[in-house]
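Sequence of Thy-1 cell surface antigen (Sinocyclocheilus grahami).
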Amino acid sequence: MVYYTAFATFFLLGVASAQTSLQLSSCLTKDQNLDMYCKFTPASDPKLQKTCYYMTENKLVGSTNMSTIPDSTFKNRATVSIAENMCKLNLKGFSDDQPKNYTCFIKQTATPMSVSAVVDKSKLQTCSAWGVMQHSGAALLLAFLTFPLLSELL
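Predicted 3D structure, token representation.
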């Protein structure tokens, strides 16, 4: 019985560590472009190739994989970039009047993980420098450095 319990524990820990959590947020730039940020937990093996792509209504908006071709609606309008634990979509000329469901896919292993969000242009917040800091993790760095810097001034 002890062996089964130990085996089950290691199995569950292995499954839990292999999972990727995703968070999706979006905002509207002053130039009426859509910025979407898909934050994910990187795989424990840094050598694994990361691929990110966005879809809406079964159409490919953009991808970090250059061999994939986006739908003609989004061609030359969408750029997708990935860095560390963040995948960013910039869609120029965002003019959708109707809410649409956008899905971010992150592929680090054989099975891609996905997260979806409904984007309604009338309810989008305007992108700001503070929002960019929140997405890039710079706010956390700033928080850690503020106290030591202030203590030096006193």
